[in-house]
């Protein structure tokens, strides 16, 4: 399977050279689906339910963080997807006792949460306003707004994701690390976002 062979190669790439490997492996660019398959495969391989040495597990967690950062930098996935996955991998790392040693700061609760907060594309007030606009659009929508039941759906061009959807995606993942965050400023920022989550 291609993802398995790609992952084997990626594990052998020296740190800091992953971007070069990706550009030579995919000169025409990568797809979001490829990146998501890589994230998922690394998550599964680092799972506490899989047999792996502590060193192997640490290397896969570190590779996952490096891949997520690179995918966002290259535009392979949206920043919100990267934030969601970084929080997901950081939450996975929290499941080990004793903790996995040698992980980068971005895989700590504080590091992953701080980075995820930086990827939120809207201010709180704007997110609430856009949510109210979306709610009004849905309440006042005519029959043409919804896809026909049992009929064909034709998408016009590429599907766009709103900033509000990205906010909601990141907020859905922040609780996974929130209770482990030590920095009071980061914790306050998380809680101020989570307080409005129900209004979105």
Sheet of most strands: none
Number of separate strands? 0
Helix and strand composition category? mainly alpha
Q: For the CA atoms, what is the radius of gyration?
A: 19 Å
Description:
The structure is a single chain. With 200 residues, the chain is mostly helical. The protein has 10 helices and no strands. The model has no long low-confidence stretch (mean pLDDT 91).
How is this structure best summarized?
With 200 residues, the protein is an all-alpha fold. It has 10 helices and no strands.
Task: Give keywords.
single chain; 200 residues; mainly alpha
Topology:
Elements: H1 2-11, H2 18-25, H3 32-45, H4 54-74, H5 79-93, H6 109-118, H7 124-139, H8 163-173, H9 175-178, H10 184-196
